[in-house]
Amino acid sequence: MITLRGREDFAKNGVLFVQKMNTQKALKWVGIIASTLWIIVSIYTAFFDVDPDQFGFKSPEVEARMQNCGGSFKQRYECKEAAILAKHRQSFVLWIEKVAAILGPPLALAFLIRLANRQAPKEEEDDLYGRRPPPVKKRRVR
């Protein structure tokens, strides 16, 4: 641990002291800021910058499949219903992928930061004087 005893020492070692004491907190805050930016940009591109008709039954793909349906009324109805249900299933999988793309990287980053902080030696464990208090001696009770 670095001890500073005046302005001269702080001028020489101040930046190093601040960096050494706040490495874990700085890593945590960088992860929070990066995750927040990632989530904001991902939500904008995944939800707001999308054509809403692309995912419903009015999409050109579903309209083309529905026009190819022929036969009696019941057969046309079942064909159109199957086309709409297939599009809904496909949209569900797409939205799950979008949610995973939005939340996956921040969760992985949080896991890696916790792993790095857990493996790094704790700088706050030492007290101001650089030594630990003596252990408490236990007495036997008769």
Helical/strand content category: mainly alpha
Largest sheet: none
By DSSP, the count of extended strands is 0
Number of helices: 4
Overall pLDDT, averaged? 78
Radius of gyration: 30 Å
Can you tell me the number of structural domains?
1
Instruction: Give the % helix.
Output: 55-70%
- Shape designation: elongated
Q: Low-confidence parts, pLDDT < 50 over ≥5 residues?
A: none
Strand composition percent: under 5%
End-to-end Cα distance, whole Å, is: 44 Å
- What is the H/E order? HHHH
Task: Provide the fold topology.
Blueprint: H1 7-21, H2 23-48, H3 60-67, H4 73-119
What would you say this structure looks like, in words?
- The chain is an all-alpha fold and 142 residues long.
- The chain has one domain.
- Helix content is 68%, strand content 0%.
- It contains four helices and no strands.
- The protein has helices at 7-21, 23-48, 60-67, 73-119.
- Helix 2 (23-48) runs antiparallel to helix 4 (73-119).
- It is elongated, with a radius of gyration of 30 Å.
Relevant terms:
142 residues, mainly alpha, 4 helices
How would you summarize this macromolecular structure in one to three sentences?
This protein has 142 residues and is mainly alpha-helical. It has helices spanning 7-21, 23-48, 60-67, 73-119.
